[in-house]
């Protein structure tokens, strides 16, 4: 379910943009460089994205006091409202999947807003074209 499921890329990972949305949603937005550093700190396979295992590593490092207080990962562990030690791996997996779903929903909503804006602009351009055509037609009746 984790592999098939809920990440925007359908690859079972949280990439930079999904992490960006997650951190914004948690109220701790990060710079592009900050996000890259967050991933780099737990990216065991050096693929520049977070697997479920690497996501769990954030909480292990937080519990062990291995994260800097001002780091993005520390903020993620603190703000994400999941305690892996009490919730267990299954609870963390559910949380991870929910966060990925949430990021997808945000991205989809953004895409829908852009499409709606584009449709509105097309409609306005078509109306303008029709008004110009009507004006030219009216103008031609006066010039004859």
TrEMBL record:
Keyword terms, alphabetized: Calcium, Coiled coil, Metal-binding, Repeat
Name of the protein in question: EF-hand domain family member D2
CDD domains documented for this protein: EFh
Cited InterPro entries: EF-hand-dom_pair, EF_hand_dom, EFHD1/2
Source organism of this protein record: Taeniopygia guttata
Coiled coil location: 93-138
Gene Ontology MF term list: calcium ion binding
The UniProt record lists the keyword Coiled coil: yes
UniProt cross-references to PROSITE patterns, sorted A to Z: EF_HAND_2 (PS50222)
Organism placement in taxonomy: Eukaryota, Metazoa, Chordata, Craniata, Vertebrata
Domain EF-hand residues, every copy: 6-29, 30-65
Record's keyword annotation contains Metal-binding: yes
Domain of life: Eukaryota
């Amino acid at each position: 379910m984790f592999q098939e499921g809920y990440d925007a890329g359908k690859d079972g990972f949280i990439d930079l943009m999904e992490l960006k949305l997650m951190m914004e949603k948690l109220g701790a937005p990060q710079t592009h460089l900050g996000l890259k550093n967050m991933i780099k700190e737990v990216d065991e396979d050096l693929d520049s994205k977070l697997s479920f295992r690497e996501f769990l590593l954030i909480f292990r490092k937080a519990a062990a006091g291995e994260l800097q207080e001002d780091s993005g990962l520390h903020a993620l562990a603190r703000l994400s409202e999941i305690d892996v030690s009490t919730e267990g791996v299954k609870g963390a997996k559910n949380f991870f999947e929910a966060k990925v779903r949430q990021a997808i929903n945000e991205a989809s909503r953004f895409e829908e807003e852009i499409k709606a804006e584009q449709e509105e602009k097309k409609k306005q351009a078509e109306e303008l074209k029709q008004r110009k055509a009507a004006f030219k037609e009216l103008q031609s009746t006066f010039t004859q």
